[in-house]
Amino acid sequence: MSVAFVPEGQRGKAEVNQDTLQRLLEENDQLIRCIVEYQNKGRATDCVQYQHILHRNLIYLATIADGTPPSTQKTVD
Q1: In this protein, which residues make up the domain named SS18 N-terminal (predicted)?
Q2: How many H-runs (helices) and E-runs (strands) does the chain carry?
């Protein structure tokens, strides 16, 4: 199960730390690799579930980024 999935009753209560973000980024990398592999094998319909998880993870990351004050955001050079 995705590290981004949080049951309804626990939403907004989890602390986001660097470890969680790193695991989520690694999970996204794995999801993308699976999606590409399925598509290359002509099994696009089999990768839909992975696309949904990836989408949820990306929305979660975007939500965190939107809620982070600009002074604490790290920039990539």
Answers
A1: 13-71
A2: 2, 0
Two tokens, residue 57: 């993870």
- 38 CB-near residues (< 8 Å, 6+ apart): 44, 46, 47, 50
66's tokens:
């939107």
Chain position carrying tokens 């579930």: 49
What tokens appear for 6 in the block?
């949080």
* Rounded Cα gap, residues 12 and 34, in angstroms: 30
Task: Give, for all 77 residues of the chain, the pLDDT tens digit.
Answer: 455 555 555 555 557 789 999 999 999 999 999 999 999 999 989 899 999 999 999 999 998 888 776 665 566 65
Residues 16 and 65 sit within 8 Å (Cβ to Cβ): no
Is the Cβ–Cβ distance between 27 and 2 less than 8 Å?
A: yes
